[in-house]
Specification:
Elements: E1 32-36, H1 62-74, E2 79-83, H2 93-100, E3 112-117, H3 122-132, E4 136-140, H4 146-153, H5 158-172, E5 178-183, H6 192-202, E6 205-210, H7 228-238, E7 241-244, E8 253-258, E9 264-268, E10 281-284, E11 290-291, H8 302-307, H9 312-323, H10 344-347
Parallel strand pairs: 1-2, 1-10, 2-3, 3-4, 4-5, 5-6, 6-9
Antiparallel strand pairs: 7-8, 8-9, 10-11
Helix pairs in contact: 1-2, 2-3, 3-5
The structure holds iron/sulfur cluster (SF4).
The site of iron/sulfur cluster has 10 residues, from loops.
Length: 349
C-alpha cells in the first residue's frame, strides 16, 4: 500500500554522528514528550469541563503508544510524561510503564517517566506504579479546603481520596510529589496562603499555574488570571520566599524555597511570563496526533500514517519534519488570538 512519504528531512538527527537530538526550526532541543493515553476523566472540574461533553477521541492500543514513543525516544526524547483526561483510568497503564522503563535514550540513559493525575485512584495504584518503573507523579489539586475542592471537581468525596493518594505516592517513593493548582480569581485564589502551608505540612512541591484559555466553556478572561507577581507577594507576606535557579533550562516553573528552608513552591506563568523561548515539549494526543504546541491550530496525524502501513523510518521522518514546524510561541491575550482546536482535557497537560 502506497504511503505518502514526507519530503526528505532537512535535519534528521538519526543521520548525524553522536546521540540523536530533536531540534525545531527555532533551534530549541525537544526532549520532553507528553502522551495522553485517554481523554476520559472521572472529574468535571469547573474550569476545564462544562460537564456536558464527555470523552471525544479514540484511544490507541497500549502497544501502539509504545511503538510511537519508542520512535520518539530513538530521535532524542529523554522524558515521557503520561497524561489524560485521567491516565489512571486506562487499563494497561502498568504494562506500558513497565515497557517504557526498559527503554534507553539516545545517550544510553534510562528514560525519565512521569505521570500527571487527578489523584482520585492514586491511593491504591501508587505502589504498583512505582514497582512498574514510574519515577515521579504530579497531582492536579486546586484547593486545600474540602468544600472548595469539591465545588471545583463536582465529585463528592474527592478531597479525601486525593489527599490519601498524595500520601500514598510519597510513601511509595514517587518523589518529589508535585501538586499542580490552577488559580482562578474568584474561584480558588483564597487558597494561596493555605496551599503554601500545605506544601510544608505534606512535604510536597505545590506549583501554582496561571489559568490558560484551554477550557471547554468560555470562562477565560485576563481578569480571571492570578499573575505570578501577585502569588509571590501574597505568600511572601506570610512565609518569606527565596527564588531558586531552574532544574533545567526548559523547566516551566519558576522555583521558590521558603526562607526558613522548609519546603518549595513553583509558579508556572504562561500568561504573564511566557517561557516559549526555551520550550522543549511536544505532545501526542490519545488518538495519535502530534501537537507541536499546546495552542496549535493544526495537528499532525502520526497514527494515521502508522495505520496506513508506514515503516518506523518513514514515521520518524514524519516526526522530524513535524517538529521542524513547531510554533515559536503562544499568542494569549494578543489581537487575533485563537483558542486551540481542542480543550485541555482532550490534549493532556
Ligand atoms: S505555549 Fe507552546 S511554545 Fe509556549 S511553552 Fe507552551 S507548548 Fe511551548
Amino acid at each position: 500500500m502506497a504511503v505518502s512519504v514526507p519530503a526528505p528531512v532537512l535535519d534528521n538527527p538519526l543521520s548525524k554522528p553522536g546521540p540523536a537530538r530533536l531540534r525545531d526550526s527555532h533551534g530549541r532541543v525537544i526532549h520532553d514528550l507528553r502522551v495522553s493515553i485517554t481523554d476520559r476523566c472521572n472529574y468535571k472540574c469547573v474550569y476545564c469541563r462544562t460537564g456536558e461533553v464527555g470523552a471525544q477521541y479514540p484511544e490507541l492500543a497500549i502497544p501502539e503508544y509504545l511503538r510511537l514513543i519508542r520512535l520518539f525516544v530513538d530521535l532524542g526524547i529523554t522524558k515521557v510524561r503520561l497524561t489524560g483526561g485521567e491516565p489512571l483510568l486506562r487499563h494497561g497503564l502498568l504494562d506500558l510503564i513497565r515497557e517504557l522503563s526498559q527503554l534507553r535514550t539516545s545517550t544510553g540513559q534510562r528514560l525519565d517517566i512521569a505521570l500527571t493525575t487527578n489523584g482520585h485512584l492514586l491511593d491504591s495504584l501508587a505502589a504498583p506504579l512505582r514497582q512498574a518503573g514510574l519515577d515521579r507523579v504530579t497531582v492536579s489539586m486546586d484547593a486545600v479546603e474540602e468544600p472548595v475542592f469539591e465545588r471545583i471537581t463536582r465529585v463528592p468525596g474527592s478531597y479525601s481520596a486525593v489527599l490519601a493518594g498524595i500520601r500514598a505516592a510519597r510513601a511509595a517513593g514517587l518523589l518529589p510529589v508535585k501538586i499542580n493548582c490552577v488559580l482562578l480569581r474568584g474561584f480558588n485564589d483564597d487558597q494561596i496562603e493555605s496551599f503554601a502551608h500545605f506544601a510544608r505540612r505534606e512535604d510536597v512541591i505545590v506549583r501554582f499555574i496561571e489559568f490558560m484559555p484551554l477550557e471547554e466553556g468560555r470562562l477565560w478572561t485576563p481578569e480571571i488570571v492570578v499573575p505570578l507577581r501577585e502569588i509571590v507577594e501574597r505568600i511572601g507576606r506570610v512565609l518569606p520566599l527565596l527564588e531558586l535557579p531552574p532544574n533545567d533550562p526548559g523547566e516551566t516553573a519558576r522555583r521558590y524555597s521558603f526562607a526558613d528552608g522548609k519546603g518549595e513552591i513553583g509558579i508556572i506563568a504562561p500568561v504573564t511570563q511566557a517561557f516559549c523561548g526555551a520550550c522543549s515539549r511536544v505532545r501526542l494526543t490519545s488518538d495519535g496526533k502530534i501537537r507541536t504546541c499546546l495552542f496549535s491550530q493544526v495537528e499532525h496525524d502520526l497514527y494515521g500514517h502508522m495505520r496506513a502501513g508506514a515503516s518506523d523510518e518513514e514515521l520518524q521522518q514524519y516526526i522530524v519534519r513535524t517538529i521542524n514546524q513547531k510554533e515559536a510561541r503562544h499568542h494569549i491575550g494578543e489581537p487575533g488570538f485563537l483558542k486551540p482546536s481542542r480543550s485541555m482535557v482532550h490534549i493532556g497537560g
